[in-house]
Amino acid sequence: MGEEEFDYDSLLKAAYEAVPENVKSAERFEIPKTDVMNEGKLTIIRNFAEVCEKIRRDPNDVLKYLLREFGSAGNLEGRRAVLKSRIPENAIQTRFESYVETFVICSECGRPDTELVREGRVLMLKCDACGAKRPVTVRKGPKPSDKPKGPVVVGNTYEVSIEATGKRGDGIARMGPFTIYVKGNYRKGTRLRVRIDKINGTNAFATAVP
């Protein structure tokens, strides 16, 4: 049997040309920034349709996720989303990034070129770039009709860690299903003791104590 000759460069070129364009691109995906405005007791995401288009997800599904996370009511108004609670801009961005990491980004190649498919009762994230698939694991939030259950009680004090800061510097922490807003100016990573002053749904409002 004769020895077959291979041109390595030609084979490499042919293999590269067979790779989809979305895999060839080395550009790093950046999660879109939400444009948030507080108007009275409302929180308006002015570029909601735009950011949903960039991650290729249904705005209704993204909004449903945010409403569950914040324990708020809300709706779509044209290309905007309106949440019927006053929520800091950083908190909206943090939850939006959590949605993207859970429902959009491929855990194998890190690209956003994915789609959601259902296999039986399991929701799967399928990557069009590398072909990987993984089940989508979602943290279950409380039902809107349920009273929040957890360790947060008005008048009690707790030790928390600041995860983000609001527009005016207020600290944002989490404990179980609750998002805790702490009065004052605090940097991300700060640990402090707080007293719960008020609870509204899964949102708690607190003051730092010695």
Provide a descriptive summary of the structure in words.
Helix content is 23%, strand content 31%. It is α+β, with helices and mostly antiparallel strands and 210 residues long. The chain has three domains: 36-104, Alpha-Beta Plaits (2-Layer Sandwich), CATH 3.30.70; 111-139, no CATH class; 157-209, OB fold (Dihydrolipoamide Acetyltransferase, E2P). The strands form three sheets. A six-stranded mixed β-sheet has the order 8-12-13-11-10-9, with helices on one face. A four-stranded antiparallel β-sheet has the order 1-2-4-3, covered by helices on one side. Strands 5-6-7 form a three-stranded antiparallel β-sheet, with no helix packed on it. The radius of gyration is 22 Å and the shape is globular. It starts with 7 loop residues before the first helix and ends with a strand.
Q: Work out the strand percent.
A: 25-35%
Second CATH tier, the architecture of the largest domain = 2-Layer Sandwich
Q: What Rg, in angstroms, do the CA atoms define?
A: 22 Å
Low-confidence stretches: 22-26, 141-149
Give the overall form: globular
Overview features:
alpha+beta, Alpha-Beta Plaits, about 25% helix, four-stranded antiparallel β-sheet, 13 strands
Task: Quickly describe the structure.
The chain has helices at residues 8-17, 21-24, 48-55, 59-70, 89-103; strands at 36-39, 42-45, 74-77, 80-83, 114-119, 122-127, 133-135, 157-161, 164-165, 171-175, 178-182, 191-200, 203-209.
